[in-house]
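pinned: reference chain
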Amino acid sequence: MKILPAMSTFVLLLGAVVVSQPASADTADANCEVRKDGDKQKGKSGPCTFSQRQGYIDIDLKNGDTVALRPADKANHFKDQHGNKVVRTQSGGSNQTFKWENGKHISVTLYAPTHDGAPPQVMVGKNGEGEVIFKNNCVVYYDKHGRRTSSLPACSSKQINHAEDAMASYRREQGMN
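pinned: its structure tokens
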């Protein structure tokens, strides 16, 4: 009979521990392209943070703005922090696109993780040639047209794919395409 009170206490304590742990969000570094009716908003586009937890999404833009989306009545439908309707129009692989009724769009491209989780650095010279640099000594090189020319042996195939996305996004943002 002494086992029953001890077991009840254990179950009660276990329940308190499980209930007290908050749900954690999946957060990733990304590149965000913010535009309205086709015009890119350069002050907002660029590196960002994308978080998703239990259907709720937060996008922290480089200018300090945060877009907070909560689930609405249908799959891929949300309301932003101002009550505006938002639809996720693309979701696949490392890309997601969100569209507002007023014509605003946010395209999110998640960065492939590097050894330390940091996004790569994109550098482009005056002649248009560029490189994407990762912290693990991976460098991917591009010609003046944005075509990959070579990469160092330290680069994984995921990093090369991520470099392609980063360079393409940079060239779009700078009006180079």
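why pinned: The longest helix spans residues 3-20. The first strand starts at residue 26 and ends at 36.
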